[in-house]
Write a structure and sequence with these properties.
Low-confidence stretches: none
Oligomer: single chain
Mean pLDDT: 90
Subcellular location: Cell membrane
Number of domains: 1
Pfam family, one: DUF350
InterPro entries: DUF350
Shape: elongated
Strand content: under 5%
Protein name: DUF350 domain-containing protein
Structural class: mainly alpha
Organism: Nonomuraea composti
Length: 143
């Protein structure tokens, strides 16, 4: 294989993984949007709510960890890697959302209340770390 072919193949793989990663992050954003009251993008953009922003960004960071681990675990097998990335990414999004709802019910940290608060709340920090931890756990499980 020539250098040009190698570079083209690598660039194609990067583009494919990036596309799957972006799609997963968009899905993750809208799942978090579904789990929070109001329109999340509006709460972040117009109200500049730090709690909603932290919850959304931590969820996206967690999805990024899962995507990176899936790429690593694929061992250069593109089709398998893309399929694994999509499946493991979706599982991670579901687990994050369930964890957020469980914290709401069991621990009493209400996402609904957090996104109404104009100042950054300790509960938002806790949920954000939970998102990243679940992403990391899922990522390591993939590897």
């Amino acid at each position: 294989m020539t250098l040009l072919e190698t570079l083209a193949r690598g660039a194609g793989a990067i583009a494919a993984y990036a596309a799957v990663g972006v799609i997963l992050m968009i899905v993750g954003f809208y799942v978090i949007d579904w789990a929070t009251p109001g329109k999340l993008s509006e709460i972040i953009r117009s109200e500049r709510n730090p709690n909603a922003t932290l919850l959304a960004t931590s969820a996206l960071a967690a999805v990024g960890l899962i995507v990176a681990a899936s790429i690593w675990a694929s061992g250069g097998r593109l089709a398998e890697g893309l399929a694994g990335t999509a499946v493991f990414g979706l599982v991670g999004i579901v687990v994050q959302t369930v964890a957020m709802l469980v914290f709401d019910r069991i621990v009493g940290i209400s996402v609904r209340d957090l996104v109404k608060e104009p100042d950054l709340q300790p509960g938002a920090r806790l949920l954000a770390v939970t998102h990243v931890a679940i992403g990391l756990i899922t990522a390591v499980a993939v590897i």
